[in-house]
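Re: that chain you flagged

S.,

Sorry for the slow reply, it's been a week of failed gels. I finally had a moment to sit down with the sequence you sent. For the record, here it is as I used it:
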Amino acid sequence: MSRVAVSLRVKGLVQGVGFRPFVYRIALASGVKGWVNNDNLGVLIVAEANADTIARFKSALLNELPAAATITEIQEERIEIQYFESFSILQSHNRSDEVTEVSPDIAVCDDCLRDMQTQPHRIAYPFINCTNCGPRFTIIRALPYDRHQTTMDVFEMCETCRTEYESVTDRRFHAQPVACNHCGPSYRIHGQDVATTDIAGLVSDWLDDGKIIALKGLGGFHLLCDATNNAAVTTLRQRKNREGKPMAVMMPSTEAATQYFFVSGEERSALTSWRRPIVLLRNKQSLAQAVSNGMNTTGIVLPYMPFHYQLFEYLKTPAIVLTSGNFSDEPVVIDNTLAEKDLGSIADHFVSYNRAIHNRADDSVLMVVAGKERLIRRSRAYVPASIALHFATEGIFAAGAELVNTFAIGKGATAILSQHIGDLKNAPTFEFYQESIGRFSSLFRFTPSLAACDLHPDYMSSAFAEKMNIPLEYVQHHHAHIAACMAEHKLDQKVIGIAFDGTGLGDDGTIWGGEFFVCDLSGYERKYYFDPVPLPGGDRVTDEPWRTAVSYLYKYLGTNVFDQELAFLKDIPKENIRLLLQAVDKGINCPLSAGAGRLFDAVAALTGICTHSSFHAEAPMRLEAAIAHGCKSKYLFDVEENRITFMKLFYLILKDLREGIAAEVISAKFHNTMLAVMLSVSKKLKAETGINTVVLSGGSFQNRYLLENALHMFKEQGFEVYAHEKVPTNDGGIALGQMAVAAKRRSERQGGV
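Prediction finished late last night. Pasting the structure tokens below so you have them in one place:
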């Protein structure tokens, strides 16, 4: 067969994942001649061989990828034959300002773990890596991804590492963080001179002794303690000012995890993947009580840095708390000097290393529902991998929400979402937000031409977008929720959008959050919604859910309901309740809310499950944890014109409480009622519009029971139903929805479809 030549432009996650050596190896194996190189567009391959060989080569490209690599597109062009005599890897260079993928950080691979035991220059080396694993996003400063553009540039490779780095057939060929005991970063214990190889043993002894350790991780400092030592965990909570929120736990293996938690096949796959996220698992037996604080799930992560494995070689405990190195609501600390200053009142000992973290990244969190991974916090090992979309996003900046913020930038037909930022009301977090926008803009050569933000005038993210002095698209909060889910599933038609959320400003100036929309990407109609209720004290209701419960009871059952003894109010002075009702009557600091989250709060308080919250969404989380799973009963509700009203629900809950029905049963009946509401209203909308596609979004769908049963219910009833997978259903996914809406509206203004 005659020789042909093709140019293959490969796009996707193909840099920093061992892709060029992979291409080199399959080219040699198949007899293809030519070359491969990196540039800021992705990877370019020039291949010469007969047509059949080229076909086999392309098949191998697609089917034999390195673990962390993904291909989204291969652009093929027939080119002139140059009669190459071999296949080579060329020097990286820039071509344009078009986006390329930047690899997320990759957990240490099994080959490197073996090398830690056998390679003389890397015995017990705690930063071992190769082309298939190691830090990426957290150390990169600019593209293309080369050593001098990372925080490894201050470490001169020794002769041995240089030889590996330059050898095409070596697993460390152009592995930018490559180093060893002789030339690479090293750990140090602050205030002590300890050999690198001794540190893991010493830290393990401290942990087994009940101490709290600040340890520099991949994307920032962590705080560690023995997860079986209740006193140590309690002390950590007190020092960190994290009273009730569950702690994440690291365990050495899935085998260890199964001793304490139920682990499905899908959860095992998530735990052991190269991303190594925190996975929410159902409790089987307890670690220290203070770890989960009464919740029925715990976030579990397996080791992903070489040093983690070294710790577990020494540790007597089967589990360690691994929580962000920060005070609550502040960004995770990344600077060695600041760590001692900022965490000095929390940690007993500090362990850092001398390589800088350029991009801060918290651990990612997910749960598995209905057999699929669903991200709750998208950060380390997922960011900054782009999300391929079905519309042009070039130049769009999406500012995101106020809480659990992420932002997004648009390049080509992709969305590049930031790592988890946090609560922008916190000044250091807002500084982190602005810094990260600058870094993403520089890294991805992004120039904004259109901004999208939330309707809420007081959101810091909206204020930032308004000051950019470019055209601005305002996007209603819950429309953004639905649009985010539509975008990730490439939906571009009319859908029934169910947004169950805590707070979001509506078009009418009230707070929305229990919404049934008929919408597409560009617009929406608010068809049905939860009956609004005053929130006495405004934002105070999130910390004091009993206030919302009182408001609901007053709205539906009147003053007389407070003449009876209500257990959930036993510690609330009657004068406080009287003043609260007066404020409701006069409309003083009592914004109207149709939020589903506030309804969950009210029921959690009314049942005595949670009258006061110590962290965001504690009440709904505890209400879910209390569910009696065998109960299939539900309460009643009404649909009056466009409003879904809950007078019957509250009357019946009070009746159950008087009859001594357990809070667990009431919780189950309430959740089943929410499912019945969703199905009943969706059937109405289907009859009215003919639409059969349901999209679920909003923070309330972090509730595993609600989401799992909703997906099953809608499928059983013949609906097409979609929920989030790639981006969080909470406000961490809002930026993607804002981008999708802005892109669609821009396209329509420009005459697109």
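What I noticed first: The radius of gyration is 27 Å.

Talk soon,
D.
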